[in-house]
Amino acid sequence: MSFQPLSSASSRRGLVLGMLGAAVLAATACQKAPPTFASMDLTGAEYGRDFSLQDPDGRTRTLADFRGKAVMLFFGFTQCPDACPTALARAAEVRRLLGPQGARLQVIFVTIDPERDTAAVLKEYTHAFDPDFLGLRADLPGTAAVAKEFKVHYQKVPTGSSYTMDHTAFTYVLDPQGRLRLAMRHELSAQDAARDVGLLLSQAG
Amino acid sequence: MQLKPWLAGAALFAALAGPSHAQVAVKGAWVRATVPQQRTTGAFMQLTAPVATRLVQVRSTVADAVEIHEMAMAGDVMQMRAVEAVELPAGKAVELKPGGYHIMLMDLKQPVKVGDAVPLTLVFEGADKKRQTLDLQVPVRPLGASAAPPGH
């Protein structure tokens, strides 16, 4: 199977977006600007409105359960050696950097590989990063439904006798009212991510 | 700095395992810890070959299958693919690290825990198609470890 590195186009796009962002900032510097985020601002998005998933104790959880907290929502799979632990380690660092405000952040890991990610492995896995992290899952149709609602792409890819998963590597952030607000790119630093979550929490009062 | 002893240990082991001056140098090798029932993990390290060679295979007794993978982003979709080899140009440090190449340990026989040393055999193939192996005992870092050891 041949494989082309694909990162250069997206980093160029990031650079162009960054330059555009800087130009917009410069143009609006004299007016009272709304807070700007290092993450992609999704405010007003008409997707990612809710989910209905099982926690490791078998309870159904929806976004309403987390009102009053900001939610960082990541879709991944536990057999993932690289992107998923990196994203969850960043989320743990964000909570630490937020200090006392970190208590108002709920980190949620939704598996897109429910066939292998049982409730037990999800619980062990998320707790290894932070005991307050929550792993959620659904059956295959439920997984497809939540991925569609959050515009998450995922795909099983055979490798050797097993398989891996391609998947969207965003971390979504929802505000304490449960509205989808931000998408954090995989490359965003923990410092920038913490600043963005802090802004959302302070907006909410 | 609690991580220093294993760094020193890894360096010492690499030194012991590499009597030949043509040996590939290994720095900062680590394996990510797993939790029970998690059957896959990654190994990461920096490799520097004195003479151009390729990393063509990795074996380990802890896993039924070992592959060399490359992680890449297609837009914002994370992809991982098995690669046939990692090119090691002469004298150039090549990183196997999160966000790039990693050694994928699949179908683990048991969880790997912090404090364990994971045996890995790296197989290199030179331009003359001759193969050389290098045995390592690689320390395990926590599941939540970030990209690189401190000071790396």
Biggest sheet of chain B, in brief?
Answer: 10 strands, mixed
How large is the radius of gyration of chain B? 15 Å
Low-confidence stretches of chain B are 15-21
- Spell out the CATH superfamily of chain B: PCu(A)C copper chaperone
User: How many distinct folded domains of chain B?
Assistant: 1
Quaternary structure classification:
heterodimer
CATH class call of chain B? Mainly Beta
Largest interface: A-B, 44 and 40 residues
CATH fold-type name of chain A: Glutaredoxin
Q: What is the CATH homologous superfamily assignment of chain A?
A: Glutaredoxin
| CATH architecture call of chain A | 3-Layer(aba) Sandwich
- Ends apart, CA distance between termini of chain B: 13 Å
The averaged pLDDT of chain B comes out at 87
What's the gyration radius of chain A in Å? 17 Å
Succession of helices and strands of chain A: HEEEEHEHEHEEEEH
- What portion of residues of chain B is helical? under 10%
Overall number of structural domains of chain A: 1
Residue share in β-strands of chain A: 15-25%
What is the name of the CATH architecture of chain B?
Answer: Sandwich
**Shape label of chain B:** globular
Task: Describe the protein's architecture and organization.
- The complex is a heterodimer of chains A (205) and B (152).
- Chain A has one domain (37-203): Glutaredoxin (3-Layer(aba) Sandwich).
- Chain A has helices at residues 7-28, 83-98, 119-129, 140-149, 190-203, and strands at 40-41, 52-54, 60-62, 70-76, 105-111, 134-136, 154-159, 162-168, 171-174, 180-184.
- Chain A has a 6-stranded mixed sheet with strand order 1-10-9-4-5-6. Chain A has a two-stranded antiparallel sheet with strand order 2-3.
- Chain A contains 5 helices and 10 strands.
- With 152 residues, chain B is mainly beta.
- Chain B has a single domain, classed as Immunoglobulin-like (Sandwich).
- Chain B contains 1 helix and 10 strands, in the order αββββββββββ.
- Chain B has one helix at 4-17; strands spanning 25-32, 40-48, 53-59, 63-74, 77-82, 86-88, 93-96, 101-108, 117-126, 131-141.
- In chain B, strands 1, 2, 3, 4, 5, 6, 7, 8, 9 and 10 form a 10-stranded mixed sheet that branches.
- Chain B is globular and about 45 Å long.
- Mean pLDDT of chain B is 87; it is low at 15-21.
- The chains are: A alpha+beta (205), B mainly beta (152).
- Strand 8 of chain A pairs antiparallel with strand 5 of chain B, so a sheet runs across the interface.
